[in-house]
Amino acid sequence: MRYTADGTQLVVEAGDFVLIPSMSEFSVTSYEVPSDxxxxxxxxxxxxxEHRSGLVAADADVRTLVGFCRLASPxxxxxxxxxxxLVHIRGDCRLSALVQLVIDESRSQRPAKEVVLERLLEVxxxxxxxxxxxxxxxxxxxxxxTDSRLASAIRLIHxxxxxxxxxxxxxxxxALSRSTFFKRFSSAVGATxxxxxxxxxxxxxxxxxxxxxxxxxxxxxxxxxxxxxxxxAFTRYAGMPPGQYVKTQQNARARDAA
Length: 258
Fold this sequence. Notes:
It is a single chain. This protein is mostly helical and about 260 residues long. The protein has twelve helices and seven strands. The chain has helices at about 75-80, 95-105, 115-130, 135, 140-145, 150-160, 165-175, 180-190, 195-210, 215-220, 225-240, 240-255; strands spanning about 1-5, 10, 15-20, 25-30, 45, 50, 85-90. The strands form three sheets. A three-stranded antiparallel β-sheet has the order 2-1-4, with no helix packed on it. A two-stranded antiparallel sheet has the order 3-7. The chain has a two-stranded antiparallel ribbon with strand order 5-6. Strand 5 and strand 6 form a beta hairpin. Helix 7 (about 165-175) packs across helix 8. The radius of gyration is 23 Å and the shape is globular. About 20% of the residues are buried.
């Protein structure tokens, strides 16, 4: 079976696991094009909840589980840019077991079903990322965290975003010279230390603003000395002032609730 996502094509075999952290579209095709009498325009919904493409009476050649997840974290946009574009894992028993648990739970009517599914999907995502050589060797957050020196700096940025961090301070915390730290961080993460810091601060700022904190409160929480300097930075990063961002989010929630 051929699998194409955002221009990347790969061959998928039985038991394979494919993760696309951020994508626009994907397609799946067989090697042999089915004849007209073996195909129909719309999949058929079966009693067990599966959607069947092809003749319902015939034995299925391929069965796939397709899922869509949305990250609720305030830094979801940042995390997606730091993850590999495509993760393809073959022959991993742990992932296969987790996928089966997801299937079983989604079909069950047991108490706390949604909570259990949410936790299973979190574990599935983590296991997929740490099982993939591509996820660790590609530029991104995971590669940065596997470097013990860089992990110290990343942890400080996440724990104390309001600190007046500089490349020099972060380099010192990593026990590296300024130039070595800058090159090592940029090469591993795919962003300079200050760009990563800015992205994290803005991710937190968006979350705080949605929780109806004042601009002054948000500015202090994410490391800006005044509301005006924060507003300038936020506007440049998000493309709109904080106040307009809040109104946009409120309108979006109102439309969803209607």
